[in-house]
Amino acid sequence: MSTSPYVPDDARIKHLELLQATVNRLGTNSFLIKGWAMTVSGGLTAAAMGGAGWPVALIALMMTAGFWLLDCYYLEKERLFRSLYERSSITPADRIPLFTMDVERYARPEPWRLVALSRTMSLFYGTFTVVGIAVTVLLMTHPAPVL
Hints:
Elements: H1 10-52, H2 54-88, H3 103-106, H4 112-116, H5 119-141
Helix pairs in contact: 1-2, 1-5, 2-5
């Protein structure tokens, strides 16, 4: 006797499409935040090296930390919605209610520290953090413009 694979009905497919659209939107937000982080932190670091001094480098470092935290928020939410998507697409016996977006109840949570220290986040924002610290320390010890 063969078992046929589970085929979701139209309502379940619409629910999955809604969840996928949310995941895409959160991914786009994360991408935009990385672009802003690169632009703002890089620009402020360049301005600090060009003569604005260590306070501007310190502001660039704080902006990097702020963008890192904001990006962690979006990545954490994206992972929650991916988990909800996976749970929504499994066999009928374990399904969650149609059109629910309640990630707190139905998704598998992931601690924000693990998200913040994930490989991609650490490499991207860690690079800006190390450069920001180096420039701040350099400008504090040598007040004259380096460039």
